[in-house]
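Progress report, Aim 2. The chain analyzed during this reporting quarter is listed below.
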Amino acid sequence: MSLGYASRLSDREDLGGRLGDPELFESPYTVLVKAHVLADLIQAASSVIAFTGAGISTACGIPDFRGPQGVWTAQRKGLPMPKLQTSFVYAKPSLTHQALLGLLQSGKLRYICSQNVDSLHLRSGVSRDKIAELHGNCFAERCKKCKKEYVRDFEMDTVGFKLTGRHCTKPGCSGPLADHILDWEDALPNAEFEATKKHASSADLALCLGTSLQIIPAANLPLRTVKAGGKLAIINLQATPKDNKAAVVIHAKVDEIMAVVMQRLGVPIPLFMRTDQVLLSHIIMQGSPEQDNLKQEGTEQQEGRNRHRATPMDQSADAAATADTEQSLAAAAPAVAGTNSSNNDSNWGFTLCISSIHGSSCPMPMILSAHVSLQASATADVLPAAELSGEQLPWKLHRQCPGSLKEVTVLVQLTLVDAADADKRSHEFKYAIVRTQCRHPTTPGPSNNSSSSQRPRSSKQATNQQRQQEEQLDGSKVFSFITQMHDYATKQQELIAQLESAAKESRQEAAAQPAAPSAAPSKAKGRGRLGNSRQGSKWQQGIQTQAQHNQQNGVDGGDTGVVLSGQNGTSSSPGASPEVAQDSHADTDPGGASGGE
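Predicted structure tokens for the chain:
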């Protein structure tokens, strides 16, 4: 998961569960066969619930927690933290994220329970009522009063349900907002935990993807499906304590398996498309500007704005201070003298504001800069263009206009960060400012740099002030633009072709190996390796026991000779130690916030 998220958690030495267990890779032929069996299990089920962990996001460039190079593994060993290839803010969902969306849309998958906080399920297109985010969401904040949730396009600065400085915009509420991210000692969200229990108990199949299933109580939720008579399927590169309860266990990369599964089911993987938004607004000031405010200025250009920005945005200021620095457009507009606004020949001015739709001082993580050019109907050179950028938000532009000018057309060209697709890093919008009988004809106000500007005394006062400012706007418009798009069909076919080719080679190699000398069968210690052995008599033994095993589990593996399950006393996971389950104490992670996968 995100290193920024991990660093915000409180210090803790007991990280719970096992860390750094070796990754297990089964033969390509076995993986292909089990992928087909998994597809058949999904096809036969009338209701499926999915449980997801950090393993489904590693393909997005986000490290896991408990793998050999995981965040917690490195922390326990005293090693440097794993390298972050991208941040939560810019990450694209994986093929598995989109595949789960496709299964939801098909009606086969009914619910997702995730321990991830990266918001990639929601970004993929999953609706909020179809997912339980047991550990919270780094992009979400909730109202302490009415419980309304807001999902932002920027990460929260804190964890542990701390106040963010923003307030609920639900009519009649105005309650304070807090981050919705669990710290170590925080309890799981009860409503989502209960919803998961209900869906798990009614499902025919529990599908566990990229989760080590170590930290309880979350790790025990899939077993409710088994107890109710359903089946359990696990895809994970490490052995889990629940492998011996599963109808099929696959040690392979999740994207590889889901590519095969979706093709066999005939369910297309939906296109991923990310859409971001920006708010343009303005206030018109009528009258002759004071001499001090004749200067035409834009926000200073951000230093090094062309450098690579696919890293988390620096949000070092605390949330309360962020809320307190919100400035009104009215306050930022140039001060004016007492001139009669009804005189159409008098000069007038305006303040243009470019801001986040989530709040005037909120980050705009996908936008690097904005070039603003102004087209006037009566003059061509009075209103110069400007480049707006930098971390002082919102971006504002003040301009004075002659009385003969009735309308200004604003052309805004946004330049996006490198995390946007190469062909989507520039977007242009047109915005109109029309001179009106303004509500602010003679009200003097400090300029953007005035020392007389008054800061609100509290975050609540800042929110109320912001609402009053929004009511004073002379115009505003939200613009939407596509920043990322990805079709996984090509990737799916590549993964399938690679797996099928490797499976063919692995089966030919197994067939070419001489049969091992017959020997009296010995009692296996621990869990067996059925389902991933290609050598001699073990491979033949798998073929002989296949029919009986499949009949017991109600699945059809064809003539593959692969034993699929550990549910009836055998297991497809090699040598998982019993201590894995024993390490999962209820008191090691009461909330499960950072049990990590």
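Residues 140 and 313 are 16 Å apart (CA to CA). The chain is about 25% helix and 20% strand. These observations will guide the mutagenesis work planned for the next reporting period.
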